[in-house]
Design brief:
By secondary structure, the protein is mainly alpha-helical. It contains eight helices and no strands. The protein has one domain.
């Protein structure tokens, strides 16, 4: 597994952050709602964040930055159906994320910027 502070990981993080911003803007949801958002209107549907993770639109490091532990617990039975090695990858990347010197801070800063931009965007739409 790659060093989270490598140039490649930081570059991927930026792409993932841009994807989240574009997605939230497109479906008109705030960042806080992205963690639980499902584009399927059925009970117990899996949040879109896990489909985005499976399709490599976002990565595990960003999942950690989003702080979705409670969402993961709610979906515990179905996550390995979507991503068979989910829990192994989640544990491995969590340790690397928490010990990173650069990526962790850039991810949290990027999410804060996205949150502010989306709030600004939604307040202008009113």
């Amino acid at each position: 597994m790659q060093n989270p502070d490598s140039d490649e990981c930081i570059s991927t993080l930026k792409e993932c952050l841009k994807f989240i911003y574009d997605y939230c803007e497109e479906v008109k949801i705030p960042l806080a709602q992205y963690k639980n958002y499902s584009n399927v209107d059925t009970p117990n549907s899996i949040p879109i964040i896990f489909t985005h993770l499976k399709n490599h639109k976002i990565n595990f490091y960003l999942v950690h930055a989003l702080g979705v532990d409670s969402v993961i617990k709610e979906c515990s039975g179905t996550l390995t159906w979507i991503i068979p090695e989910f829990y192994d990858l989640y544990a491995q990347t969590r340790a690397k994320f928490l010990s990173s010197k650069e990526l962790k801070h850039k991810a949290k800063k990027g999410l804060k910027i996205i949150e502010q931009k989306l709030l600004k965007f939604s307040s202008q739409a009113l």
